[in-house]
C-alpha cells in the first residue's frame, strides 16, 4: 500500500495512541535484540571524537507511546556500549528528533512526552524518503513499522491500459495476484528504499547506525496474514465507494451536484 494520511491523532478511542498494541508487541519482541546490536556495532571511538552530543532520529514516529519506549531502550544500549568501552555515559547529552509527515499530530506527541525523559526533544516534519538532516549529524536513525508504506501508488496500478491495472484493490495478496501487479509494487519499494538509505547514508555520522523494524514475508510469498487484514479493509473501502456513488446518483436526480 502507498502512503496516505498520517495515523489518527489525539488520545481518543480510535487514535493511533490507543490502537498500536500490535506494533508495541512487535517492538517488545525485538527490543533486546536492538540493544544487543547497538552494543555490538556502535563505533564509540569515532563517536567520542565528535563530542558529547548524541543525536537519535525516530523516522515515522507517529504520536506515541511506542516511540518513547524505543528511544529509552536505544539510550540504554548506547550507555552500556560507552561504559563497556571505558567512557562515562553520564557525559552524553542526548537529542531525539521525532520525525513524521507534516500532518502528523505533533501536539499530542509532545503533550505526552515522559516527564522523566533523558533527552532533549525536537520535532522534524517531512518525508523520510528524502533528506531531513545535515550531513553527518545523526548517530542512530531508527524506524519502526513505517517503511512498509510506499511513497506513492505505482502509476501502472491505476492505468487502465496497463497489464498491472489493479482494479478495485488497494494492495496485492493471494495466489491469484498478477505478476505485473507484484512487480509494480516491488519496483516502487526498491526505489523508495534506495532513496531512504541514500539519504540516511549522508546524514549518519561515521560510527553511527540505522535500526529498522519492518514487517516482511519470505521471497515468493504472496498470501500472508497482513494481506488478510488489508483485504478486509479493501472490502470496506469498496463498499463505501459504492454507497458514495449511490448517493451521488440520487442527488443528481434531485438536481444536486455533490454528495
Beta-strand fraction estimate: 15-25%
Rg to the nearest angstrom? 22 Å
Q: What's the CATH first level of the largest domain?
A: Alpha Beta
Question: Structural class per helix/strand content?
Answer: alpha/beta
Q: What are the secondary-structure elements, in order, as H or E?
A: HHEHEHEEHEH
* Mass-distribution shape: elongated
Instruction: Give a quick account of the main beta sheet: strands, pairing sense, barrel closure.
Output: 5 strands, parallel
Number of helices: 6
Low-confidence stretches: none
Q: What strand order characterises the main sheet?
A: 3-2-1-4-5
**N/C terminus separation:** 27 Å
How would you name the oligomeric state of the polypeptide chains in this document? single chain
Q: How many domains would you count in the coordinates?
A: 2
Report what the structure shows.
With 259 residues, the chain is an alpha/beta fold. It folds into 2 domains: 16-152 and 180-217, Vaccinia Virus protein VP39 (Rossmann fold), CATH 3.40.50.150; 224-259. It is 41% helix and 15% strand. It has 6 helices and 5 strands, in the order H-H-E-H-E-H-E-E-H-E-H. A 5-stranded parallel β-sheet has the order 3-2-1-4-5. Helix 1 (21-41) runs parallel beside helix 3.
Amino acid at each position: 500500500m502507498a502512503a496516505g494520511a498520517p495515523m489518527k491523532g489525539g488520545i481518543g478511542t480510535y487514535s493511533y495512541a490507543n490502537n498500536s498494541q500490535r506494533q508495541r508487541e512487535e517492538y517488545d519482541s525485538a527490543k533486546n535484540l536492538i540493544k544487543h546490536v547497538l552494543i555490538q556495532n556502535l563505533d564509540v571511538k569515532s563517536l567520542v571524537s565528535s563530542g558529547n552530543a548524541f543525536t537519535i532520529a525516530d523516522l515515522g514516529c507517529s504520536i506515541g507511546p511506542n516511540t518513547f519506549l524505543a528511544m529509552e531502550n536505544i539510550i540504554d544500549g548506547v550507555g552500556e556500549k560507552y561504559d563497556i568501552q571505558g567512557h562515562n555515559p553520564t557525559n552524553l547529552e542526548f537529542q531525539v528528533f521525532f520525525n513524521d509527515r507534516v500532518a502528523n499530530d505533533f501536539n499530542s506527541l509532545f503533550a505526552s512526552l515522559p516527564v522523566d525523559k533523558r533527552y532533549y526533544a525536537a520535532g522534524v516534519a517531512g518525508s523520510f524518503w528524502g533528506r531531513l538532516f545535515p550531513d553527518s549529524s545523526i548517530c542512530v536513525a531508527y524506524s519502526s513499522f513505517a517503511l512498509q508504506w510506499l511513497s506513492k501508488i505505482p502509476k501502472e496500478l491505476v492505468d487502465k491500459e496497463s497489464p498491472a491495472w489493479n482494479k478495485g484493490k488497494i494492495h496485492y495478496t493471494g495466489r491469484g495476484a498478477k505478476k505485473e501487479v507484484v512487480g509494480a509494487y516491488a519496483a516502487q519499494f526498491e526505489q523508495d528504499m534506495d532513496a531512504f538509505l541514500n539519504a540516511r547514508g549522508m546524514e549518519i555520522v561515521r560510527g553511527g547506525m540505522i535500526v529498522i523494524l519492518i514487517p516482511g514475508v519470505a521471497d515468493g510469498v504472496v498470501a500472508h496474514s497482513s494481506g488478510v487484514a488489508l483485504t478486509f479493509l479493501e472490502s470496506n473501502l469498496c463498499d463505501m465507494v459504492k454507497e458514495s456513488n449511490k448517493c451521488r446518483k440520487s442527488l443528481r436526480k434531485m438536481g444536486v451536484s455533490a454528495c
